Amino acid sequence: MIDMFDPVEPRAVLDRISAAAQSGVPLTLVVAGQLHGDRKTRELFLALALSTPRTVRQTAVSWRGLVSAVEAAAGVTVLVDLVVDASAWRTLQQFPLSLGSNAFMRGRVTRAGRGRVAAPEFVSTCLALWQKTGFLEPAELHRLALVYARGEDALLVSTEPALADGAPPQGVGSSGDTPRPEEPGSRASGSLRAVLLAAREGRHEQASEAAAAMYAQVARDLGRLAPETLLWMEVCAEIAHMAMDPVRSCAGWLAVARARLERGEPCDAAEVEACADRAHHQWQRIGSTATLVRLAPQMIELRRLVPGQRSGSLADIQRRTERLSRLDVLSVRPSSNPESAILRLSF
Hints:
By secondary structure, the chain is of the alpha/beta class. It has a domain at 1-162: Rossmann fold, CATH 3.40.50.1460. The protein has 13 helices and eight strands.
């Protein structure tokens, strides 16, 4: 069931969710926003459009009320992407976030930062991947989306529904899962799980080789511009990021952006802009002046086509490239590293 509306009044929100939960069909709930904690009672509140830190009791949805609203559902899948204040953060350090015993919840909770505008990158990525690769289950979406939505001071949310005896159901987070018939895409899903696990454990070279092999196979079978092919290109680029290899990551995101444009995606499409932004971010992290200048023409070409939401992105690349291109080598210290040169600005 897809039900979208402008949340303003807490009671109306809870009534809408409760009605959906009582419809007799499984409920999918996407929760993104701000979570506040009451300092005295430690109760959690989900902010709505008119909520402020001082008025959450009157203008926000209590998390306890949200739990009650979904308890009648035949099954609940929940994706959460929440920014929490200091009080809620302390509460969640001791009491994991949950929406009841029949809720399958995945997501992240990020601590609020002063002067930082948070974006729901996790749920946005989940929804985009769900649209492109319908065979991915919520647990698989969670693993992949977190690659793109990491952040400092983040808690990962992962709760499973329980059976009457308290044991997790087979096939959902249990160590003794019953094998299921292979479905279309399940082989790719298994490979994706293994690749992401290797990357998160720091086995970047192994993850990179496996991702490159899957990319080559999918490109050969489905074509180089197929959605699944682009997915593996993105995985390769992000693994390079995780391995702190900005050169390879920048080149990877450049390739993904160009491929998306080539297959006819609009220049202002969210996924195209995200690829351009990631390429730009990785380009800025390159430590080698020569490499940074070498990749600059590709970045300039991309930013002319995809300026993104931040003004001045093209000017930033042009300005930095022009400044670095004016560097002259004055002398070189005795070293095997040619980049240990003493540099002088030429004007």
